[in-house]
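Worked example 3. Consider a protein that binds nicotinamide-adenine-dinucleotide.
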Amino acid sequence: MRTTPPRVAVVTGAASGIGLATTLRLLADGWAVLLADRNAANGAAALEAAADLGHEAATAFTTCDVATEADVEAAVDLAVSRFGRLDCIVNNAGVGGAFGAISTIEQSDWDYTFAVMARGVFLGIKHAVRAFEQAGEGGAIVNVASVAGLSGGAGPQAYSAAKAAVISLTQTTAVELAPQRIRVNAVAPGPVLTPLLARTEDRVQDMRDILETTQPWPDPGRPEDVAAVIAFLAGPDAGFVTGETIAVDGGQTAA
Ligand code: NAD
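Given these inputs, the predicted complex is written out as structure tokens:
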């Protein structure tokens, strides 16, 4: 009996939070996943978590800084050489970004935020498309944006602007790449309790404030809630969906 080879994904920022939940969800759905993250210690722990669930053969980890083109190129090439193909990249890696009034933000913080979250997504798209074009079978790209990129409010300026860039890039590349059957979509999570958000007490308080004031749904978001939407966008059930940004935010943007 012939078995279907697994679909293959690269997930950036896969060692923690939403990236780790996405990795475990894709593995449970039968994908093979290359985990790409700059944090090798957390990457090793993520690989162990996947192995404990029986997915050892379907996973590999590479240390990768998504702001560095050679790293992203190498991660995509490793996925293809290790698993034989590439069907999807999830451009998820992200950092908190500089907080505070616009007049207090250092240029270096602004540039760093954009390097990881805007340049990183651009590089992920660029190199995944290179691999998709070589195989000629289309592909799927899922970018992790944020509700902060969809509207104003008192968001951290650099972070919000970088996420707005991700949403724009999702739309422009979706149009460009549709003739090659390459779909490009994004998710825009609201507050999700991950290490990124829980890093400081201020940010946890921000989340409590949002829950009390602007988010209709009474519970905080979980990484698994976002992972489920990413998995949908990555797979064939979303075969006619492209250029879309889906808010996963407990109704925050609708309110
Ligand atoms: P997290 O801190 O739990 O995980 C982020 C991962 O990205 C970490 O493993 C980190 O090592 C990795 N990373 C950071 N910079 C990197 C780089 N330059 N190269 C490679 N890896 C890098 O955070 P999370 O909350 O899971 O965030 C994942 C994504 O979700 C981010 O893009 C974030 O902006 C977005 N997001 C999060 C929330 C939230 O409330 N947690 C809300 C909206 C959007």
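Take a moment to read the result before moving on. The two ends are 52 Å apart (CA to CA). The chain is about 45% helix and 15% strand.
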